[in-house]
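Incident review: delayed structure delivery

Summary: a single-chain prediction request sat in the queue longer than the usual turnaround. Root cause was a stuck worker, restarted by the on-call engineer. No data loss occurred. The affected request and its eventual output are reproduced below so the record is complete for anyone auditing the incident later.

Affected input:
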Amino acid sequence: MDPALFTSTRFGEVTREPGNRVAFWYFKPSHIPRDLALTTATIRALSEADASLGRLQGLGALIRDPELLLGPYLTQEAVASSRIEGTQASLSDVLRAEASGAPSQSEDIAEVERYIAAIRQGYELVSELPISQRLILRLHKTLLSGVRGQEKRPGEFRRSPVWIGSASDNPDTAAFVPPLPDDLPDLIGDWERYVNEPGELPTLIRCGLMHYQFETIHPFLDGNGRIGRLLINLMLLEEGRLGTPLLYLSGYLEQHRREYYERLQAVRERGEDQEWLQFFLTAVRRSADDAVARAERLVEVRERYLTEASGSARTSLHTLVEMIFSNPFITVARLQGRTGLTAQGARNVIKDAAARGWLQEVGTIGRGGRMYWVARQLFDIIDSPWNY
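Output delivered after worker restart:
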């Protein structure tokens, strides 16, 4: 890490391990500021993000059974957040694997599935625990257990230095070297207090600073980005800015990955906090607007399908509608497991749905030759390009 690039000490300083003449340079963050003057551009970005987030929160309150929309949104977030870290699984890969009901043989899919499990665990824990060291350690253990990275101390803070760069980098050539393990107790303690103390700054500003500081502290050997992005939604839920967690930023952050990393680094090097906050607030605004647009389209299709199902003699058709909105891929075994129908009875329901134009046969996939169908209209809404 080149100490000459770090020209501001507003958010921390470049230093070496005391008493070690051959030690490498690393960045030691300051405590998170409790007060911050906002520029006109930041205030404008905050106002726009607040308005968009408010529309999303209002929509979540109006939708009947908003929980049914969480499955597609959550999976899309997990796929995008994992892609930022280099995982290559697609949305259809993950949804098909989930629909199969069998353990995935793909390491990439398994990583996304662990992230989905961590997200769901976070939503449960935040209702009973504050955002705290205890919470993030439990999420981290869920995220990394049983997949690549399980050797990197799941559920434990790191005990060795790390650096950010290419695989061939070392502390001297890396773009960024986070604080040493001995610095973590103080820094994580301050981060925890900041998240849980009522502050003068608006929630979205505090959320942006929370995420910046978490990524800068880099408390784990692996999984810091995914946990840090998950914490954004948890903080908005805890502070009452979202009733239903329908905001997912990772699609925007994946599309703007280079700027995302550059903005975080610019705070460390040059103290450019306003530019980072404006980028973060833009991500919130555009992600919220995109979520509203998708939700409105999904709800319209869902209501139409439910109306058709209510006029059918097949009572299981209504159950099928609920199932394809949680995951647009369906198999005979999946429908059987939910309804208790015989295999032939499940096939008849699927055949009825296909005749109505709800389902499209995909064919057999995988070693077992299992037949899949997809609710194409729903999948296309979920998987359509992000409206950024």
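Verification: Strands lie at 12-15, 26-29, 329-330, 360-365, 370-374.
Action items: add queue-age alerting; document worker restart procedure.
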